[in-house]
Amino acid sequence: MPLEKTISKSSQANIQEIAIDTSLPLDLRRSLYIQQIENPYCFLCGDTPVQLVFADHQPELSTLLTHYLASLK
């Protein structure tokens, strides 16, 4: 996914304004979250633009966490 050069604050959802009823079933909560956030990789947190990018060549998070937790023993 290419990085967006600038993030238009007016076109992004503010994650602080998203409200999901936790008593709803998980699948419905996921659906409602996606409907409200619109783009889960590019949104606002207050006035701060957030863009998530994942590198293709890095180990998976689960692998990194396993190695980290093993190193704590």
Widest sheet: strand ordering: 1-2
**DSSP helix fraction:** 25-40%
In total, the number of strands is 2
Alpha-carbon distance between the two ends = 37 Å
The largest β sheet comes out as: 2 strands, antiparallel
The ordered string of helix (H) and strand (E) elements is HEEH
- Proportion of residues in extended strands: 5-15%
- What structural class do helix, strand and pairing data support? alpha+beta
Number of helices: 2
Radius of gyration, taken over Cα atoms and rounded to an integer in Å: 16 Å
Uncertain segments are none
**Overall average pLDDT:** 88
Give the overall silhouette. Answer: extended
Structure explained in plain terms:
The chain has 73 residues and is α+β, with helices and mostly antiparallel strands. Helix content is 32%, strand content 11%. The protein is built from 2 helices and 2 strands, in the order αββα. A two-stranded antiparallel sheet has the order 1-2. The longest helix is centred in the middle third of the chain and has 12 residues, at 26-37. The protein is extended and about 45 Å long. The mean pLDDT is 88.
Chain-wise SSE layout:
Layout lengths: L25 H12 L4 E4 L2 E4 L9 H11 L2
Antiparallel strand pairs: 1-2
